[in-house]
Amino acid sequence: MIIDTTEIQNIHSFSRLESLNEILKSIWMLLPIFTLVLGITMGVLVIVWLEREIAAGVQQRIGPEYAGPLGILQALADGVKLLFKENLLPSRGDTSLFSIGPSIAVISILLSYSVIPFGYHLVLADLKIGVFLWIAISSIAPIGLLMSGYASNNKYSFLGGLRAAAQSLSYEIPLTLCVLSISLRVSNSSSTVDIVEAQSKYGLLGWNLWRQPIGFIVFLISSLAECERLPFDLPEAEEELVAGYQTEYSGIKFGLFYVASYLNLLVSSLFVTVLYLGGWNISIPYIFVPELFEFNKVSGVFEITTGIFIILAKTYLFLFISITTRWTLPRLRMDQLLNLGWKFLLPISLGNLLLTTSSQLFSL
């Protein structure tokens, strides 16, 4: 039997070409994820720098100024310092749960970024249940905090974890009811892209902020409580609980809790922009400059860059409000925190949902 060597070489070259194509496809699939993670990392570093600068301005201090120009590398320096610090484990605690807890808190929040649209086709996963997927995934983060408090074998840590779970449960229900009002009345969809598109026609006048003002206020307060920001940072109130669920942590695991906090703050601000402030759309009404609204439907580099700039500008405006709130308001007591969630925000959000569904029925 005569074997044609040329044919064998062609078969080998074809197989190598197929394997190369598979590798390139895998890289192409992972490229958007790596790009999103890189952008999130840069956004968190900017938030940390902004918080320190705003806090310094409120308290009439200088703030960070030595690490890089204007102190912008201070957060990176802190991360490197925590990376090289020793990781201590509690001798009588559950070491496996102790190590898994911070990772669950970070990963669950990172997954929420997959449904956030930064442009008309610039979203990692455009799902029909996008907003509720964010709520479902973000509700996993308190489980990581509760695991961390339980595994520390410390009553202060465990109490902080219990507070985190109670606070998340108290404020997730009004948050979900506000999102449901948006989905039912305004957009008839839970897709984040559809919600932004429903606000695109009239510019600033078409924002859901004007259609759902009560829901916007409830969503704003609930998102701050979900992020455990002042005046809602009871799970780690140092006057009562030392440092809450993170008392026994050190090194990079301690830093992961702060990363999770800033990631949660950024994703909440992005969802406020998407749900109520028009997302990537230009704020000028359509009737004044209709040509500008062609940006929303095209996918050129300039248009994509413009959309990303608009959504980030709105997001960081909300972040400025959140950071300023932290350094101006005193902390609530735990009973006040729970009363606000269950006795005020829950009835208000239920009433808002009832009004929304009633107007929906009457409009049929």
Kindly list the characteristics that best describe this protein.
13 helices; 67% helix; mainly alpha; 0% strand; 364 residues
Overview of the molecule:
- The chain has helices spanning about 5-60, 75-85, 95-110, 130-140, 140-150, 155-185, 190-195, 210, 215-225, 240, 250-275, 300-325, 335-360.
- The chain is mainly α and about 375 residues long.
What would you say about this model in short?
With 364 residues, the protein is mainly α. It has helices at 5-58, 74-83, 95-112, 130-138, 141-151, 155-187, 192-197, 208-211, 213-226, 238-241, 251-276, 301-326, 334-362.
β-strand amount: under 5%
Q: How many β-strand stretches?
A: 0
Spatial shape? globular
Distance between the termini: 79 Å
* Average predicted local confidence, pLDDT: 82
Give the number of helices. Answer: 13
Structural class: mainly alpha
For the CA atoms, what is the radius of gyration?
Answer: 24 Å
Helix content: 55-70%
Major beta sheet, specifics?
Answer: none
The residue ranges in which pLDDT falls below 50 over 5 or more consecutive positions are: none
- Report the order of strands and helices: HHHHHHHHHHHHH
Write the layout of secondary structure elements.
Layout (H helix, E strand, L loop, with lengths): L4 H54 L15 H10 L11 H18 L17 H9 L2 H11 L3 H33 L4 H6 L10 H4 L1 H14 L11 H4 L9 H26 L24 H26 L7 H29 L2
